[in-house]
Amino acid sequence: MPLSVFIRSDDDFLSARIWIPKRSRGEGLVFCHGWGGGAQYDDLLEALAGRGYTTLRFDQRGYGSSTGKADLSLWAQDMATCAGALGEAVRRVWAAGQSTGGARALIAAACHECFSGAISIVPFCSLERIIQDNKNARPVLEEHFGLLQEKHFRAADRMNYPAASCGVSPRNSSSLSQQAAGN
Fold first, then answer.
1. pTM of the full predicted structure?
2. What's the mean pLDDT in 12-36?
């Protein structure tokens, strides 16, 4: 049974659920949802806890019981904050997510040294491409994030995300597109 907690990130509080394994392997996973939330992955997170992983799923700002306004440019930072909340319970933490959260997991793992790597389930390549492919995407996104701005497009473009814009010491100076290509 997961623990329900709130994790402070800047001036906001992120609603989170943590599954603690009976016998820990010393590794954890922070799961980031897509546009629609992430509760549909609770069974996966529970199963991983059954295999020794400490797992955490949180609601981004403006989603679920989390406070604040949704801001795509803060998702990777909030993932790192949640990884920090696992504290000394784990030696290694993986960033994971689905769709928008999958793209953010890749960026979080590239930009924040607290992550050992990323597990990305059906991430998108760019916000521009999502809007081109799905005529309903812009209204749905603007309902969550307000009028889409350049910062949203930059934050969502995982294939050209410059490591220097991570806001922290990046793991290296290459872009995610170079990392994805194996260069």
1. 0.80
2. 94
> Is 139 strand, coil or helix?
helix
> What pLDDT, in 10s, does the model give residues 61-101?
999 999 999 888 899 999 999 999 998 899 999 999 998 89
Residues 6+ apart with CB under 8 A from 23: 52
Domains of the chain: 3-180 (3.40.50.1820)
Q: Name the H helices within 38-136.
A: 42-50, 75-85, 100-111, 127-133
Q: In terms of C-beta density within 10 A (0-12 exposed, 13-18 middle, 19 or more buried), how is residue 51 classed?
A: exposed
Say how many Å lie between the first and final Cα of the chain, rounded.
42
CA distance 110 to 127: 19
Distance CA 10, CA 168 (A): 15
> Side chain identity at 4, as an amino acid letter?
S
What is the edge-to-edge ordering of all strands in the sheet holding 53-58?
A: 3-9, 12-19, 53-58, 27-32, 92-98, 115-121
pLDDT by residue (tens digit) across 41-67?
999 999 999 999 999 999 999 999 999
Quote the DSSP letter at residue 63.
S
